[in-house]
Amino acid sequence: MQQRSDGRAPDQIRAINFELNIAPHATGSVLVSMGNTRVICGVTVEESVPRWMKESGSGRMTGGWLTSEYSMLPYSTTSRKPRDISKGRLDGRSSEIQRLIGRSLRAVVDLEKLGPRTMWIDCDVLQADGGTRTAAITGASLAVALACRKLANDKKVEAPPVKKLVAAVSAGVLDGRAIVDLNYEEDKAVTVDFNLVATEDGEFVEVQGSGEESTFAQDELEQMITLARKGIADLISAQRAVLARIMVSPAES
Fold first, then answer.
1. Residues 16-41: pLDDT tens digits?
2. Which CATH fold topology does 16-245 show?
3. Contacts of 6 (CB under 8 A, 6+ apart)
4. What is the signed CA dihedral for 93, 98, 99, 102, rounded to 10 degrees?
5. How far is CA 222 from CA 171, 195, 212, 217, 218, in A?
6. Distances (CA, A) of 33 to 18, 111, 141
7. Spatial separation of the C-alpha atoms in residues 164 and 200, rounded to whole Å
8. Are 36 and 15 within 8 A, CB to CB?
9. CA torsion through residues 225, 76, 92, 236, sign
10. Of 38, 40, 103, 225, which has the fewest Cβ atoms less than 10 A away?
């Protein structure tokens, strides 16, 4: 297969690295690096649930909640990005991404086993070079696994409430060929933008895809899904290797 501008093959993800416990006051934290994209993912746990859960009468009072926040630090891009607080509102992109992170992690955490607690996932982009949302989800998955293990070790839950690992990766069509894990240069140039979130057993959590002032055919969609599934498998393997080194089982019961 033809190589890309950074030397990768079309089906090759960027170099992945996880630095654990980057934030000592968090219940679990990870600095994830995918190529030149770096995101700090921290998990904190509050011993209460949101007011809307208490007032909704939803019948889920024995369970908890998981939510997320996402931001790009001002120096994460080549030109300074003003903080949302300076604009008085969260921008639409950040709101969309933090909701995606929350949905992705709620899909793999047993909220009943979490108990009447709120798990906060904070993802802050330290350096952006494409794929910040996918890196955030992949790093947050590890941070949640660490936080859930700590809850169990502290005897706050009977067993870690995380059910499985989850990861995310981008794909696209560039110069008529499908590629996976786009850097910023590629992300600007692709005619199709695609993101896949999936679990370690290959089940989809979310699929996002759109033409960038273009259309795409079914065979191109299938190529992107194939590459993204391989990319997810590679990311899950990297997550598992880290957890194995520190003797943490993400779905211990």
1. 999 999 999 999 999 999 999 999 99
2. Ribosomal Protein S5; domain 2 (3.30.230)
3. 14, 35, 183
4. 160
5. 11, 13, 18, 9, 6
6. 6, 28, 14
7. 7
8. no
9. positive
10. 103
Provide the token pair at 98.
Answer: 């933090």
- Stated as kind and residue range, the H or E segment containing 205 is strand 204-211
Report residue 248's pLDDT band, with 50, 70 and 90 as the boundaries: very low
Which H or E run contains 171? strand 166-174
- With CA atoms as reference, report the closest residue to 64 among 200, 162, 164: 162
Residues 153-165 have pLDDT tens digits of: 999 999 999 999 9
CA quadruple 231, 223, 208, 4: dihedral positive or negative?
Answer: positive
Q: In the chain, what are the domain boundaries? A: 16-245
CA distances from 147 to 24, 69, 95, 103, 153 (A): 12, 17, 24, 18, 10
Asked whether 39 and 31 are in contact (CB, 8 A), the reply is yes
Per DSSP, helices labelled H in the chain are 51-56, 84-87, 92-106, 111-114, 132-153, 184-189, 218-245
The pTM of the whole model exceeds 0.90: yes
| Element at 127 (helix H, strand E) | strand 118-127
